Amino acid sequence: PRANDVGDSYWLPFTAMRQFRSNPMMFVGAEGMHYLAADGRRVLDAMAGLWCVNAGHAQPRIVDAIREAAGRLDFVSSFKMSHPAAFELAGRLTGIAPEGFDHVFFTNSGSEAVDSALKIARAYHRARGESGRTKLIGRAKGYHGMGFGGLSVGGIGRHKRDFGPLLPDVAHLSLPYDHPSMGFSRGRPETGAQYADELQSLLQIHDPATVAAVIVEPVIGSGGVYPPPVQYLERLRAICSRHGILLIFDEVITGFGRLGRPFAAQALNVAPDIITCAKGMTNGAVPMGGVLLRDFVFEAFMAGPPEAIELFHGYTYSGHPLACAAGLAALDVYEELGLFERTAAIAPTWEAALHSLRGEPHVVDIRNIGLLGVVELSPRSGEPGVRGGLCAQSCYEDGALVRASGDLIVLSPPLIIEEGQIEQVAVSVRSALRQID
Ligand code: PMP
Known about the structure:
By secondary structure, this protein is an alpha/beta fold. The chain has helices at 16-22, 48-51, 60-72, 84-96, 110-127, 148-153, 157-160, 197-205, 232-243, 264-267, 295-303, 306-309, 321-336, 339-355, 386-397, 419-435; strands at residues 27-31, 34-37, 42-45, 101-107, 135-139, 170-173, 211-216, 246-250, 274-277, 289-294, 363-369, 372-377, 400-401, 403-405, 408-411.
């Protein structure tokens, strides 16, 4: 099929439709590090699909596991029934999760994981007799999915503008470390821990006894890839603990190895109370998400008044057999390839390649942590986003898939990327930057 044959019947996400028409990227296959485009070209995937295909496309072991599961047990509800793979996967996930995260709730996406986590946070306080704790705190530039809960705590204006009213009783921290002047430093900013104290100020406006949870991406992802300053998350953690507020890490992007450990909580050595994940959970092969809970959160429901256990929340496809099979196979592959350790080992080479773009035309900042990076371009005057789009288009024509988000070039390759391919990505972006105006 050619892109122009698509017609009007199929809608891409609202804002993507026009871009697709002008620069169609139609894929018919994928394997390892590459997509196969409809025009027959192989394109190096420097985005891991959409931050999810951590072990590369069409991993044979995952493909086989899905096939086998589909022929054996196609569906079973998770209401009052289950199947062994769901328990096995839960056990494997809690095995790689940070210490004390002994419980999993399965969802079908990151958005559902976030909404579930927010509901669980409120229900946790209610189960403990603190029903006044309902407020939720997110961050500017935070992205937590497209459900009304995630949208409400999220901080990207254009995502929210046309869909209100959103949830009441939500507040946002600012993101004071989001300006390019911190620029070109490698890894995490050394200074900026004090920015977390804004939470303390916010709690003078919102009585802490009314706040259920603070939700943050440990590394802001969709909002522009901002690694947290050293000690920033630690301070958020301390303030939440002081006031009995749950801290949620949204690890939909950072989960499953992108920072060189299973979760960012481990890579950055800060323990939240709830973790949301998705994407890499099945290597992108079947939709799945999850909420990981520390023991005391789960136990509150079990120890609470009987009505707390009647907590009603769940999805038809929670713990779907195909997703569980894919999830188990993905964890096998990650483990066999030693993928998380490999990521930690190759990250400096990747970071050096990104930083070699410093000084190229239009580049105003480069940020990276693990295998999660961004090259920020200056916007063309009066035409924000155009330059980013042209750069991504030029890379694509040159055989490398990068993601333009406005004037940010987001780079987040499968964790199996080889050194030569890292070089190819850098060469592609460099020559794109030299060609566009
Ligand atoms: N949270 C974060 C941090 C994300 O990056 C995303 C997706 N990019 C989501 C939630 C939503 O996940 P999904 O698109 O699977 O609903």
